[in-house]
Amino acid sequence: MIKILHLSDIHMGSGLSHGKTNPETGLNTRLEDFTRTLGRCMDRAISEPVDLVIFGGDAFPDSTPPPFVKEAFANQFRRLVDAQIPTVLLVGNHDQHSQGQGGASLGIYRSLGVPGFIVGDRLEMHCITTRNGPVQVITLPWLTRSTLMARSETEGLSLDDVNQLLRDRLNVAMEAEIRRLNPEIPTILLAHLMADRANLGAERFLAVGKGFNIPISMLTRPCFDYVALGHVHKHQNLNKSNDPPVVYPGSIERVDFSEEKEDKGFVLLELERGKVNWEFCALPVRDFCTIKVDVSQAENPQAELIKAIEKKSIKDAVVRLIYQLRSEQLDGIDNTELHSALSEAHSYNIQPELVSQLARPRLPELDSSNSINPLEALKTYLDNHEELKDIAEFMLEAANNLLAGEVEPLIMVDN
Ligand SMILES: [Mn+2]
């Protein structure tokens, strides 16, 4: 049995606006949160100890993080070097730099020749020797069109055609790596990608055009004992029959409010050829809390706001208060009292939204004399916006799902 810790989407250094400066260290408290949480992953890897750590990509919010953020990340991974635990760092979309090949933010680990560290910045099979025997890892970093095809090949093709061509190319390239596998040795596919069955809430249509989706059938191949994914921040297993498990561990900390309701953690697995046991290990991370209230019809909007705040447990949480009111109610709002009601939060922001009673429709078909259902309204809107044609179908589907209550109406900006 080979024991492995699989974590992903660390995004060290993101969401700093949700923190404040720690006067004792001079560091942003959210950076300290992320560092502590990453530290907990390392604690577990070392105390088990595991034979291998695999990281599914997106180390930082972008490929050029400031030195103190890089250092916080490196200090934690350094502990694996000291403990002689081999480690694979996969390159995600946020790690890639538009200049040059491979992951700019992680390439340094290869350049330095860090013992036991592999940087997965290309599709490649690695056979890794661990304390409990060999394991094969195929690394599949985030793919962009330019990785697999020349610009001239895609000219004049629709987005769908380009993506199909990309999938075909990937299939061929993957086959070549699969042929190099020794069928006797346990094997992992470690990939940073958007899989077709991934549950993203409203993020799905926002992601269209930024990348392309991989059909799950390309991943659930018998040559793989475990498919370790990165990119989607919500933990999930896309193959419930576990033959093999296709697992996003999700991000280790809440990157923004879209992850308010998600559990955060990593995956611990035991692997042998043809057999795998895995479990999700939750991490104690800081709460995020949205307080959303419409006081535009309230007699006493201030009292309603205070009541709404008191209903939530906001101690040490990252809080946002979003409320709707009419402009003539503005005088009735006492901001000092709101600030003091929110003061036990770790951080908070207050977003008043004025509801206008004279909203004028911008599309003549959508004026208030027409009663129109939301889907029809969206369709009309899309028909009037040529630039949204590519994603119109996805938006309608997403709207359908929202109306059916199948997904939560959260807006994720980016993975
Ligand atoms: Mn990603």
Question: SSE layout and pairings?
Answer:
Layout: E1 2-7, H1 29-47, E2 52-55, H2 67-82, E3 87-90, H3 107-111, E4 117-120, E5 124-130, E6 133-140, H4 145-148, H5 151-154, H6 159-179, E7 187-192, E8 194-195, H7 203-207, E9 213-214, E10 226-230, E11 236-237, E12 246-248, E13 265-272, E14 275-282, E15 288-294, H8 301-311, E16 318-325, H9 335-341, E17 347-354, H10 374-383, H11 389-403
Parallel strand pairs: 1-2, 2-3, 3-4, 6-7, 7-10, 8-9, 10-12, 15-16, 16-17
Antiparallel strand pairs: 1-13, 5-6, 11-12, 13-14
What is the succession of H and E elements? EHEHEHEEEHHHEEHEEEEEEEHEHEHH
Whole-angstrom Rg: 24 Å
Beta-strand content estimate = 15-25%
Count all strands and give the number.
Answer: 17
Q: Major sheet: order of its strands?
A: 4-3-2-1-13-14
Q: Stretches where pLDDT falls below 50 for ≥5 residues?
A: 202-209, 408-413
Question: Helical amount among residues, as a percent range?
Answer: 25-40%
> What average pLDDT do the residues reach?
88
